[in-house]
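Thread: "does anyone have the structure for this chain?"

Original post by V.I.:
We have the sequence but no experimental structure in hand. Need at least a predicted one for the grant figures.
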Amino acid sequence: MKRTTEKLPMYISCRVVLNDEQRQALKQAYRSQMDDLSPQPARIGGSTVTTQTAVRHPIERELPGILLTDLLSTRESLPLDTVIRIQRAFGVEVITPKDVLKQAENYTEFMFRDDR
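Reply from O.Q.:
Generated one for you, tokens below.
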């Protein structure tokens, strides 16, 4: 996709309504990555050693875990830029540039229709 550094002559804002499958994919990716980052209990001669850590997912610098869970579980819609940041952090794509362009086209056709 072509990138530009020039200012655009208008601002377009977009919110995304994720379906249950998309939300689940993002939550699962987050849980999986957190599991990979967390130390696992060690077994030593029949004993189990449990460790605790303050390991955090890199995205938690911007979105703490509780806020991330709230966004993915309870919000009807999310800003597009937030969805893109979450996708990149988790390595999962639930919304593609093609999806956004298609919806932008639908919106433009709706706004400029002749029967208004």
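V.I.: this helps a lot. The two ends are 33 Å apart (CA to CA).
O.Q.: and The chain has a mean pLDDT of 82.
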